[in-house]
Amino acid sequence: MAGVIGAPVGHSKSPKLHGYWLKRYGIDGYYVPLEIAQADLAEALRMLPKLGFVGANVTIPHKESVLGLADIVTDRAALIGAANTLIFRPDGKLHADNTDGYGFVENLRSGAEWDPKAGPAVVLGAGGAARAVIASLLEVGVPEIRLANRTRARSDVLRAEFGTRISVSEWINAGDMMEGARTVVNTTSLGMVGQPELNVSLARLSAKAVVTDIVYTPLRTAFLERAAEVGCQTVDGLGMLLHQAVPGFERWFGTRPAVDDATRNHILSV
Ligand code: ATR
């Protein structure tokens, strides 16, 4: 048994995704939403293994605070400063990992002909999602990251933490960073249903860039459509959500689940 811990947790697509995989692979298991308030988090993490849980995903607002409660924190979770995947080990130890960066990279690898080493990457935004994206881009060998965020101070913090391969621009000049870029990522919430569009200029972008968005409602954001008009390969954000769930499911239930059209279609169905 596994679940997703959050507050609120009703919006999470994880129960639908893991429930689909459990059924598809004929696994006798459950995956449930677990609405747990901040004040109850430590106690819940102690109780869940005793109730038969083998692990859990973690979502807002617990992704950061869960690190302080874990016995073992993977390097990538420590680097990102947040965890999204927990394993309740048989020896009683709580293991915390972050698979968001893995999901991001797998989505690009499977959705495009993408060579991260081909040239600079542009990252728009400097929130929680940007941390996972930046950590994984550096890990796969992107030579340079150009970062811009509406609130400049947040991008400066990321540069200070993640090091010299990162340069920071003002948000207003983000379009200038597109020159020569081979990977472009929107990690902001702009373009999501109900939010303003992401209006960063793509006039300097070359068709050689692979462009992706972490937004997946809508699946085809106006930003991706503009990049496609330039001639770029584009990859929507749904695959990141699906791929980040793979390592947890495999650890908890012993089967590596497929991220394919059937999985995508199931998640998109109401
Ligand atoms: P997440 O964990 O999903 O990254 P977040 O930490 O709230 O969420 O970050 C949201 C990102 O979207 C931030 O980079 C934010 O910019 P600020 O740091 O300036 O807040 C960006 N964002 C949200 N609304 C925006 C807007 N209207 N214009 C520009 N950037 C925006």
From TrEMBL:
GO cellular component, one term: cytosol
Lineage top rank: taxon: Bacteria
The keyword Oxidoreductase is assigned to this record: yes
Gene3D superfamilies xref list: Leucine Dehydrogenase, chain A, domain 1, NAD(P)-binding Rossmann-like Domain
Active site (UniProt): 63
Gene Ontology molecular functions: NADP binding; shikimate 3-dehydrogenase (NADP+) activity
Cleaved signal peptide residues: none
EC assignment: 1.1.1.25
Pathway field: Metabolic intermediate biosynthesis; chorismate biosynthesis; chorismate from D-erythrose 4-phosphate and phosphoenolpyruvate: step 4/7
Residue stretches making up the Quinate/shikimate 5-dehydrogenase/glutamyl-tRNA reductase domain: 121-188
GO terms (BP aspect): amino acid biosynthetic process; aromatic amino acid family biosynthetic process; chorismate biosynthetic process; shikimate metabolic process
Residues that, per the record, bind NADP(+): 75, 125-129, 149-154, 214, 237
Keywords: Amino-acid biosynthesis, Aromatic amino acid biosynthesis, NADP, Oxidoreductase
Broad EC category: oxidoreductase
InterPro entries per record: Aminoacid_DH-like_N_sf, NAD(P)-bd_dom_sf, SDH_C, Shikimate_DH, Shikimate_DH-bd_N, Shikimate_DH_fam, Shikm_DH/Glu-tRNA_Rdtase
A Pfam match: SDH_C
Residue intervals of the Shikimate dehydrogenase substrate binding N-terminal domain: 4-86
Amino acids binding shikimate: 12-14, 59, 84, 100, 216, 244
Catalytic reaction list: shikimate + NADP(+) = 3-dehydroshikimate + NADPH + H(+)
Record-stated family: Belongs to the shikimate dehydrogenase family.
Entries under PANTHER family matching the protein: BIFUNCTIONAL 3-DEHYDROQUINATE DEHYDRATASE_SHIKIMATE DEHYDROGENASE, CHLOROPLASTIC, SHIKIMATE DEHYDROGENASE
Protein name: Shikimate dehydrogenase (NADP(+))
Gene name of the encoded protein: aroE
